[in-house]
Amino acid sequence: MPTSEFTRVTIRPMDEYNQKLLKNVHPDNWINPQPADCYDLVIIGGGTAGLVVAAGAAGLDLGLKIALIEKHLMGGDCLNVGCIPSKCLIRSSRVVEEIRKAKDLGINISQQFDVDFATVMGRMRRIRASISHQDSVERFKNLGVDVFLGDGKFTSNNTVEVAEQTLNFKKAVIATGARAAKPKIRGIEEVGYLTNETVFSLIQKPKKLAVIGGGPIGCELAQTFQRLGCEVTLFHRGSHILNKEDTEAATILQKVLIDEGIRLVLNCQLEEVVTVTEGKRLYFSVNSDRDSVTVDEILVGAGRAPNVENLNLETVGVEYDQTLGVKVNDYLQTTNPKIYAAGDICMDWKFTHAADAAARIVIKNALLSPFGWGRSQLSSLVMPWVTYTSPEIAHVGMYENEAKKLGIEIETIKIPFRSIDRAIADHEESGFLKIHHKKGSDQILGATIVANHAGEMISEITTAIVNKIGLNKLSSVIHPYPTQAEAIKKAADTYRKTLLTSGNKQLLGFLRKFS
């Protein structure tokens, strides 16, 4: 008989929007289906990777039996506690910054404006709920996927158990994702802290907020909450924020964060957190000098931990690491050839679009590559990414230091946005475009863009790399004027000018005489 024995979920606050969200992604009245005799594919995890595998496999229209298991919320981090809610808040925070800069653009704001934090958060919940139908249990049921809510774990080499039911499978996919790593700071568990999984449940604005971690998540949320009216202190153990990013790009953003009023504590060691009358006090040291700060809330945005627990992976011979996650080869196959993995559970690229791309590889390799013919490789992907601060920092391909480590000689073309007419008109001149190309060739190896809409611009360069379109051809692409993306054409034109050697100039002069 079908069963509905699974853990119910609540999301604070339980308003109409979160109730609508739960109705879609974890409905209380859901009854798990009666399992098929055997599934062609069982997927554990209903985040981006799992959903794309399930929808893609069902969409092949080959009559495949597909089962999808999710213990918490369909849509995973991206919909519920990641991309969607964070970008909603970032959009509101950018309006605040536009108002503050209005005077520079000739607009005088006649009265003091107010940030209604509760309304900002309510808008986020409303938007999240409004798009949640795309990841809903009902939608996947209608696609022909058997959806099981509950904890899934392997019980043998061809069975998975969920909510007291056994699913037989021919092949399986692990897509259980990752979660915020627990900080190793004395006292923080007792005092309590927020992560990306809980911060979007806030309904009252914390007056003072400590953000731990100067990576992409920490920087995005620190800037957002500062703009929304919090007094933010950002702690980072490195000498500058975004230490994996292009140094010049990180320097620009670091200056912006400081100029916007964020207290930035670098090279710090967080030692202890205690509860005091005024709130939560963090003790830290910088170069052996001890100090403290007292805040209302602590937001941890440093590190991710893979969700490998309780899957019973040892039973099916799937090797894993508590820090790195499930071990896979370049075909996203685990150490058990019948079981694949995709997304944050097994990849360094912890992005929604990376999980989507990996899921497509899994579909191809698990279902459409008999005897291993025509398999796709993870290493063949060209992966762009964006840090959604203001300005945004977008990157694709190699950094300069990576090329050096590989012994590849490169040349770099840098176009400052102060030379781009649209950026000047937009009062956004502080960014730049860098394109790295192979020395003596127009082959693009990597690029970094620092601009308010860098994420919208990086795809052109990604397309060029994927399709082996060099700077020479890119120079012939007409870009609308005035746009900030014109910087890409300027970079390509800069490369073409390097081709005007003295010999070429003599040839052109000769041709000119007969024209």
Notes on the structure:
It is a single chain. This protein is α/β, with parallel strands linked by helices and 515 residues long. The protein is built from 16 helices and 23 strands. The protein has helices at residues 16-25, 48-59, 76-80, 83-100, 117-131, 137-142, 188-191, 216-227, 247-259, 352-367, 400-405, 421-425, 454-466, 471-474, 486-498, 502-513; strands at 39-44, 66-70, 145-149, 152-156, 159-162, 165-174, 178-180, 208-212, 231-235, 263-265, 268-276, 279-286, 289-295, 297-300, 304-306, 320-321, 325-326, 339-341, 385-387, 392-397, 410-416, 432-438, 444-451. Strands 1, 2, 3, 4, 5, 6 and 18 form a seven-stranded mixed sheet that branches. A hairpin with a 2-residue loop joins strand 4 (152-156) and strand 5. Helix 1 (16-25) runs parallel beside helix 5 (117-131). The longest helix is centred in the first third of the chain and has 18 residues, at 83-100. The mean pLDDT is 95.
What is the topological layout?
Blueprint: H1 16-25, E1 39-44, H2 48-59, E2 66-70, H3 76-80, H4 83-100, H5 117-131, H6 137-142, E3 145-149, E4 152-156, E5 159-162, E6 165-174, E7 178-180, H7 188-191, E8 208-212, H8 216-227, E9 231-235, H9 247-259, E10 263-265, E11 268-276, E12 279-286, E13 289-295, E14 297-300, E15 304-306, E16 320-321, E17 325-326, E18 339-341, H10 352-367, E19 385-387, E20 392-397, H11 400-405, E21 410-416, H12 421-425, E22 432-438, E23 444-451, H13 454-466, H14 471-474, H15 486-498, H16 502-513
Parallel strand pairs: 1-2, 1-6, 2-3, 6-18, 8-9, 8-14, 9-10
Antiparallel strand pairs: 4-5, 5-6, 7-15, 11-12, 12-13, 16-17, 19-20, 20-23, 21-22, 22-23
Helix pairs in contact: 1-5, 2-10, 4-5, 4-8
